[in-house]
Every structure is written in C-alpha cells, then in structure tokens.
Amino acid sequence: MTRRGALKASWLVLGLTVWLSGATGVCAADIVGDIVALQPLQPHTYVEFISVARELAGCDRITAERIGYTDKGRAVVLLAVHAAEHRALPPSEHPPCLFIIARQHGTETAGTEAALALLRYFATTRDEVSLRILQQLTIVMVPMANPDGVAASTRRNSANVDLNRNWDTLSQPETRAIAEAVARWQPLAVIDMHELPATSSKAAFTQNFVQTIGYDQTVPQWVSADCHICTLRIADWMRRYDLPANFYYDQSNRAKTLCHRYFGLVCGIPAFLFESKTGPGHGLDERVAFHVLGTLVLGNHLIHSYYDKDRPTETPVMAAAPSPAQRTAGYTTPASSAVQPPHETPVPATPLELHILKPADGATVGGMVRIVAQATGDGFSYVTFSIDGALKAMTTAAPYTYILDSEDYADGEYRVEVALCGDVGQPVLSKACVLTVNNSLRGR
Ligand SMILES: [Zn+2]
Predict the structure, then answer these.
(1) How far, in Å, from the CA of 165 to the mean position of ligand 1?
(2) Helix 3-13 to helix 284-307 angle, to the nearest 10 degrees?
(3) Domains of the chain and CATH, by start
(4) Which of 86, 164, 274, 356 is deepest in the core (most CB within 10 A)?
(5) Range 176-190 average pLDDT
(6) DSSP state of 281
(7) What is the pTM of this model?
C-alpha cells in the first residue's frame, strides 16, 4: 500500500480517543520551549545558514543534500532529521515524512529559524518522547528556499520572481528543485512557512494564520478531511500556548500559484501555509514558537493517523503546554515526569446558544463584510464559517468573526452558515443567513 493509501485507510479507523490522546496520554517535557530556546539572537544570513548546514551534516541523525542552485550559484539545501539508523536509507524507505519549506520570501526570517531550531533539537536531543517521534517520522526541510533573496534582503529571487507565485509554472530553479524533492520524498504533508508584514490593509492579515485545503467536490475527501481535523488540533494547541491565530480554507477555484495550493490542490498532499505576524509585540521568539508548535502538532497528527491502527492510543508525542502565566515569563520546561489526567467532576452543562449578530439576514453587502456570531454555553470547541456549503474559516476566539471580501464573489445570493463544532469538528449547532453580494457597493 502506498503511504497515501495507508494514511487514507488509517483515517477511516480513527476514533475520538485518538484525537484526545494528547490530552489523556502521558505528557512530556515542553518540547516547544526547548526548541525555541535553540534559536540565535539574530536570524541567520545565507553564509551562516550554509555553515550551520555543514555542521549539522556531521550528525548521525541528519542527512544534508544540495537539491539545486539559484541563478546566482547559491545552493538550495535540503536537510532531513531522522533516527540515526535510518541515515543510509533512500527517501522511499524512510518512515513517513513531513516536508517543510521556509523562506520563499527572502525577508521572512522566522520560518528559517524555526526549521533550524527543529533540526538542531532533534539532531541532539536525548528526550525519550522526541526520540520516539524520530523513530516514527522523518522531518525533511528546505530551511532557506530563496538564498538569493536572503542574500539581497528581498522578497523575490534574483530574477525578480515572487517564488510563492511560481508554483503553477515552476519556471524558477528554486521552485523546481523543491517540487522534485517533494516528489522523491512523498511526504504525508507539506508546510510552507511565511511571515506577515506588520502593517497590512488585508483584514485576513491582522494576526498569525494557517491556511489549508477545504472541502470541495474536486479535492479528494480524505485530503480536505485530514487538513481540517489537523487544523482543529493546531487551533486547540495555539490557544493553549496563548498564540492567537486565524484559520482559513482554500477551495480549488483559487489560483494554484501558491506553494500550499500546488501541493494540496494539484498534488493531493495535505498542505498548510503558516504565516506568523511581525511587528511590535511579535518578537522572533513568539514567531518561531508559532511555527514550531504548528509543526509538532502536525507531526503528532501524522504519526497518529499513520500508525494508530497498530499502536496504543496513549502514545505520547505532544508536549505539555505551559500555562499563560508561565508563558509570559518565557518558555519554561516543566519536569518530564508522567502526568496523570485529572479526574474531572461533571458540571451541569449550560445549553448552547448561537446567534449571527452581523450582518442582518437578507442584507445586501459589498466590500469587506464582517460576519460576527455570538455563542454561549458548553459543548463546543470551534466555530466554523461556510459560504454556500464551502468551509471558509474557523476560529476559537470570541468575538467569532470572519471577514468576507466581496471581491472574491460574483454578485448574487449566498448562504452563510455559522456552526459550533465539538472537539473533533462535528457540528453541534448551526445557524444560517442569506446575503446578497453587490460589488458596486465596494468602497462606499
Ligand atoms: Zn511570504
């Protein structure tokens, strides 16, 4: 069975206990804090990155490979971290893998730093849980996808091409090299790491976000289901780590020029765009933590979905989150001893209520349209927003809001559905309203 087939098969047998195993299993040390602590004070230059890659290549848990050259002759380097005994294996014989691409835009530093910190950590750790992760998952990375852009401090490469608008044609040596490497490694999922400018007029860009592949008739259902359930897990852990984030979904009508859409919508690989917000109050520590945490949650999900048929569900692979108080004091490392789940006394549930506060049912709208819902009561973990049945966004933080840009829609009538979902994404209560988009109202 192919890896993708195996993932699909294991998806079918997944039950609730699997998804709760992070909470009910034995908790490990704060791996996220340990990894974030490994980043340098200043982001790596290209020359420093090459020197780190050379140093890492000497570790028995690292495989390094030059997968291509830029137009200016700089190397595009792939680094894989794996169990030491897997070092000599070709990609096809490795355990399932997660493929990370960082810094297609030369000025966006946090992805590279997260990738290098992850590599350093897994290359040297003696933590039992982390070693178990490496036995089950190989993490493959291109930490610096745009070396010429990094060297010149530009978003684009030396041919003045935006690499993350190049995945439909693969006309650039950097995107071609990465696409070929992904084809060889056949990952279970791809992450593309980016950063958001401090100031942006786009409503979707106000804070960290994750964008992935949503339900669509032309997308294999297991791909969108896998992307969605994993996004729910990421949202849950981001909340525990006090890292605010939004979550968006792409359908197949979107342009395939972006990396995560190419891998998700064209290649059928679950794919995720991670965007960390930059600017005042968003230090490199916090931005790197966002990428590292997202990566670990996705890795955790892949391990469970790939192996759980044969393994006990309490297999611990996720770190214990620090409390918000610990978080503000810096990333802490709690003792790595086993923690038993607390016995919870059942409290009477408050009935669920859901209202769509804005806009009014039947409204005619144009421009940036805020859809705001109010939800109270117990028994939901996530709030989703769908337009005409297509999942568009998910949030965990009140006020539950999705900003619809009418430019993405032709004039006409649309059904907006807001749903409260349980722990594994199952809708428990939903409300709908009808909107008429009239783009001539834009900018008024
Ligand atoms: Zn970017």
Answers:
(1) 10
(2) 80
(3) 3-328 (3.40.630.10), 353-441 (2.60.40.10)
(4) 274
(5) 97
(6) T
(7) 0.82
